[in-house]
Amino acid sequence: MTAATLFARLEKRIDSELGSLRAGVEPLLGEVRQALEALYPGPEGTLLPPKEQQARREKLAGTLDQLEDILEALQLAARTRRGA
After folding, report:
1. ∠46-10-59 over CA atoms, to 5°?
2. What is the pTM of this model?
3. What are the backbone angles phi and psi of residue 25, rounded to the nearest 5°?
4. Tens digit of pLDDT for each residue in 9-41?
5. 23 Cβ contact partners less than 8 Å away, ≥ 6 residues apart
6. Is 67 helix (H, G, I), strand (E, B) or coil?
7. Shortest CA distance to 25 belongs to which of 58, 79, 66?
8. Which residue in 21, 19, 63, 73 sits closest to 38, CA to CA?
9. pLDDT at 76
10. Domain segments of the chain: what residues?
């Protein structure tokens, strides 16, 4: 399974869990999407030099940590909204 496929599944799950609250994570999802496209360019793409790959991976890890925190908060808000 490719990174793009996994990311598409994640986005669908976020849509189903958060609905309109997804807007709160859209900028971070865009960053993750760009990082994955750069790190895993596909068969016709060009791989980044090793140092740039490492830098992108480190930045991606930080972005994913932020995304996780925000998703947890938004998921709680979505559950609260559904229960209200």
Report:
1. 50
2. 0.88
3. -115, 0
4. 999 999 999 999 999 999 999 999 999 999 998
5. none
6. helix
7. 66
8. 63
9. 93
10. 3-83
